[in-house]
Design a protein that fits this description.
Layout lengths: L1 H10 L3 H12 L1 H15 L3 H8 L1 H15 L5 H16 L4 H15 L18 H17 L13 H31 L3 H12 L8 H16 L4 H4 L1 H22 L12 H7 L8 H11 L3 H15 L4 H6 L6 H23 L18 H6 L4 H193 L3 H154 L1
Helix pairs in contact: 2-6, 3-5, 4-5, 6-7, 6-8, 7-8, 7-9, 8-9, 11-18, 15-16, 15-20, 18-20, 20-21
């Protein structure tokens, strides 16, 4: 038997089965949550339903409905995601990307509604089987295409690298599944999910009509799914409704007419029949497992699971039991897990066929506890509860030997643990003694350490304050350096402008010097011309004086001629005849004398005018000479000044170039200093922040040390108590 079990254990260590098991296990809390929400909304108790009809109850009902929509109603999506995640991990792929591929691939094949949306019916339990198949297929395709990845620079973020590496594998995987579904849909009018549902319906078509053989086959299929970790009830739910969903409606209508639950015209097999008399405690008639464990099992682990899952099993929610023992993929419980529901199905069908038990005539919620559900389902007949008790007893008898075998294996494991615990007994005593002896020393060390930490905290706080002050000074210095940098830049610009103006001024001064030189030459020529004019005017004046002297001589001659004329006229008067000629001559001489006197008078006037003009011209020439001499001196001085200006401009240009050279060096040094100040400021900021954080951490550590000291003191006492209790428990 052990060899068979070991072989079965190795057989079930398959990546697909293990991944499916993990997927259902991890989604178990959500599934249970949805089941509880549905149970609360549909519990067939009048008081509860009346409470749910109140305003507050309606809010509770709406919340439960939303919880169901977010859990059980989308179970297929949850399983596709989690199965893709765990199966991808077995291939050492990125689990999240593998899960994303599986969920996307399943959504791509789901039946769509007329408005283009996805039918909610395919996202719940009815689409669970195809979700598992598509998730496995999508993950396998993703693994096959994983070699087609895009490699990018390692400098990119890890998430970006993973995204590019998974780009083609995910796209091709989802595209292949969607393309296949599209081809099948175009050629046959049905998608992959509809074909899977059709295949399952055909496989279990023998159950159609409520026959015993078909029902046994259907029950067997449900539990085979469950054994491999697939929620068989949810997978086969739509098939059960299709197979004999109308039987219960027929029974309800017929019972409303005659109120006879034993009427042979009533159908025996219905979904309510399975819920009430087969799935007591859930799949595998799990309530029998719980009772059998409490009867025969001594394993602490098995009894703890039975205690924890018993309450949920009482309401037909057995996931904790199935995944806790576990029943899933457990070769020991495979036979009773399949045999018990088949046996109770045959017992229930036989009892109703013989008319010993009333048939199911009322729809009862699947979460209704056993005994009560049998009573209500049969229209209030105790025969239904009695049949449930018989079925439970038969199930317990079937499970007992297998539970006993499983308990022995569990006890062997626990005995090994007990042996290990025995070995730990002395270790616990030694540890307790060491803890007790070392706690005092640790307390003292922690106290000293706490004092040191407090001192460090104070020093760090002082250092942090000083660092903040230095940081403020560095900020101020940085602002000053920026201002200096700006001023130096402005000075550099101004010097360049000055150099440009100096070059223009130098050019103008050179031009002015040339013009002054030319003017000076022209003024020298004018000076020489003025000197010559002055000499000519002097000579003219001298000639005028000579002419005046000549005129005086002529005037004397004229006067003498006038006298001579007068004398001649006198003598002519004395002479009679001979005197006429003399008289004429005397008259002519007189006329000539008068004319000469007039001409001399005119010449004297002209000479006086010329003399006055030449005197004035000489004076003006002298003034002009003095002005020319002064102008020459000024031009000479101006020429010398322009020379000095040119030399000064040259010196200024040399100095400006020197200033520009040093200004560039200063700007470079200022930039380096500014960068150093910025780096220093940043360092001070980080140091101050780090110091503050360090002070806070040290302060926290100091507080933690104090708390640790208190905890150690408390732990010392608790350890002593725990050691005593552990020793007592080990002895027990």
């Amino acid at each position: 038997m052990e060899n068979i079990l070991q072989t079965a254990d190795r057989l079930f260590q398959n990546r697909y089965i293990i991944s499916i098991k993990k997927a259902f296990t991890i989604t178990l809390p959500v599934i249970i949550l949805g089941s509880i929400a549905s149970l609360v909304n549909n519990i067939p108790i009048n008081i509860v339903q009346a409470g749910l009809s109140t305003p507050v109850g309606q809010v509770i009902r709406a919340v439960n409905g939303a919880v169901w929509l977010g859990s059980t109603a989308v179970m297929a999506i949850l399983i596709a995601w989690t199965l893709g995640y765990y199966l991808g991990n077995t291939y050492k792929l990125n689990g999240t990307l593998s899960a994303l591929t599986s969920a996307s691939a399943y959504l791509s094949i789901c039946v769509t509604t007329p408005d283009g949306g996805i039918s909610l019916s395919r996202l719940g339990s009815s689409g669970l089987f195809e979700a598992i198949l598509i998730a496995i297929l999508a993950t396998e395709l993703y693994h096959a295409f994983s070699c087609l990845k895009i490699n990018i620079s390692e400098d990119m973020a890890e998430e970006v690298q993973q995204m590019f590496a998974a780009l083609f594998p995910i796209m091709l995987s989802v595209f292949c599944i969607a393309l296949t579904n599209g081809i099948i849909l175009m050629t046959s009018g049905k998608g992959i999910d509809e074909w899977i549902y059709t295949a399952l319906s055909f496989l279990f078509s023998a159950a159609d009509g409520g026959g015993l053989v078909g029902t046994l086959f259907l029950v067997f299929g449900i539990h085979i799914f469950w054994f491999f970790g697939i929620h068989g009830g949810n997978v086969m739910d739509s098939i059960m409704v299709s197979a004999f969903g109308e039987n219960l409606i027929h029974n309800i209508d017929l019972y409303a007419l005659n109120h006879n639950a034993f009427d042979e015209q009533l159908a025996i097999i219905s979904k309510g029949f399975l819920d009430a008399f087969v799935f007591m405690g859930g799949a595998g008639t799990s309530l029998c497992i719980i009772i059998a464990v409490f009867i025969i099992a001594r394993s602490r682990y098995m009894r703890s699971i039975a205690k924890m899952g018993g309450i949920f099993t009482f309401f037909n929610m057995n996931e904790i039991v199935l995944f806790g023992f576990p029943v899933i993929l457990n070769p020991i419980l495979l036979i009773p897990f399949l045999l018990t529901p088949l046996t109770v199905t045959m017992i229930s069908w036989s009892a109703m066929s013989l008319g010993l038990v009333a048939r199911v005539v009322t729809e009862v919620h699947w979460a209704m506890p056993p005994l009560l559900s049998g009573y209500l389902a049969t229209g209030g007949h105790l025969s239904g509860s009695i049949l449930q008790m018989i079925n439970i007893t038969a199930g317990i008898l079937i499970y007992l030997p297998f539970i006993r075998l499983m308990d022995r294996r569990a006890m062997q494991k626990e005995s090994l643990k007990d042996n290990d615990m025995a070995l730990l007994k002395d270790t616990l005593n030694t540890v307790a003694e060491k803890i007790h002896s070392s706690t005092g020393e640790i307390n003292g060390e922690i106290t000293d350490f706490s004092i040191i930490l407090e001192s460090i905290v104070r020093d760090l706080n002082v250092l942090s304050a000083q660092m903040q002050q230095q940081m403020q000074l560095m900020h101020t210095c940085d602002e000053y350096m920026q201002t200096i940098d700006t001023l130096v830049g402005n000075t550099d610009t101004s010097i360049k402008i000055v150099l440009q103006n100096m070059e223009k001024t130098n050019t103008l001064s050179m031009t002015g010097a040339q013009n002054l030189q030319q003017t000076m030459q022209e003024m020298e020529e004018t000076f020489f011309s003025t000197q010559k004019t002055n000499e000519l005017a002097s000579q003219l004046n001298l000639h005028c004086e000579q002419i005046e002297e000549i005129l005086k001589s002529i005037e004397d001659i004229s006067m003498q001629m006038a006298t001579l004329s007068l004398n001649a006229s006198t003598e002519t008067t004395r002479a009679d005849v001979h005197g006429k000629g003399g008289s004429v001559m005397a008259a002519n001489i007189k006329d000539l004398s008068e004319t000469t006197a007039g001409a001399v008078s005119d010449i004297k006037g002209l000479l006086q005018g010329m003399k006055a003009d030449t005197s004035d011209m000489i004076e003006r020439s002298e003034v002009s000479l003095r002005q020319v001499e002064t102008g020459l001196q000024q031009v000479t001085d101006a020429n010398q000044l322009f020379g000095e200006i040119e030399r000064n401009i040259h010196n200024i240009q040399v100095q400006c170039h020197t200033v520009l050279k040093y200004s560039g060096e200063v700007i470079g040094e200022l930039q380096q200093i500014n960068e150093q100040i910025g780096a220093t400021s940043h360092f001070f900021v980080e140091t101050a922040s780090h110091t503050s954080d360090l002070a806070a951490q040290v302060r926290d550590r100091s507080d933690e040390s104090k708390e640790m000291m208190q905890k150690l003191r408390k732990l010392n006492v608790e350890t002593s108590l725990l050691t005593v209790n552990a020793l007592e428990n080990l002895e027990k």
